[in-house]
Amino acid sequence: AIKRVIELAYEVKRLDRLKESLIEEMAKIGTSLPEVAILTTIPGIALKSALCIIAELGDIRRFHSANAINAYIGIDLTTYQSGDYMAKQRIRKRGNALARKVLYRTVINIISASSYRPTHFNDFYQMKKQSSQSKGTKKIAIAVMSRLNRTIFHLVLNNEAYEPTVFQPKQ
Prior knowledge:
One of its GO terms (biological process) is DNA transposition. One of its GO terms (molecular function) is transposase activity. InterPro entries: Transpos_IS110, Transposase_20. Residues 37-114 form the Transposase IS116/IS110/IS902 C-terminal domain. This is Transposase. The chain is built from 7 helices and 4 strands. It is globular, with a radius of gyration of 19 Å. It has one domain (31-158). By secondary structure, it is mainly alpha-helical. The strands form 2 sheets. A two-stranded antiparallel sheet has the order 1-4. A two-stranded antiparallel ribbon has the order 2-3. The longest helix has 29 residues, at 2-30. The chain has helices at residues 2-30, 34-39, 47-57, 66-73, 97-113, 120-131, 137-158, and strands spanning 77-78, 81-82, 85-86, 90-91. The termini are far apart. Helix 6 (120-131) packs antiparallel against helix 7. 61% of the residues lie in helices and 5% in strands.
C-alpha cells in the first residue's frame, strides 16, 4: 500500500509538470491572439484567465449577440409558467458548464481586484449587493457574468481595449 501511495505521488508530480508545460505552451500561442490582448486590459483578467475564456468560448465573433454567449454558457434566464402561475426566473444551466465556471471565477477575480483597479463590474456588484439584501452573492455574480459577457463581446467586436470611463453609467 505504501509503494502504491509513493507511485501515485510521483504520478501527481509528473502531471503537475505536464500541466505547467501545457499552460506555458498555451501562453506562447495565445499571446499572438488579439482577443487575449483585449481581455487582459480588463482589470482582474490575467493571461491565464484570458486564455481559459478564449479556450472555452472559442471565436467570440461567431456569436450574433452577447445574449447568445449567455445562452452558450447557460446563464440565460428561463421562467416556468402554467396558467396564471409564474415561477421565479432562474438560469438554464444547459450550456458549457466549464465556461460558466471559468467566467464565474473571473468575475470573482475582477471583484477582488477592484480595490486597487476599479471597474464598472464592481460598481454594479456593490449596487446590487446593497439594493437587495436577500439576493445571494452567487446570483449577483451571475448578473455580473452577463455584464462581463456583454463587455467582452463589445470589446472584441470593435477591437477596443477596456477603458473604465467608457463603461461607467452616465449621471
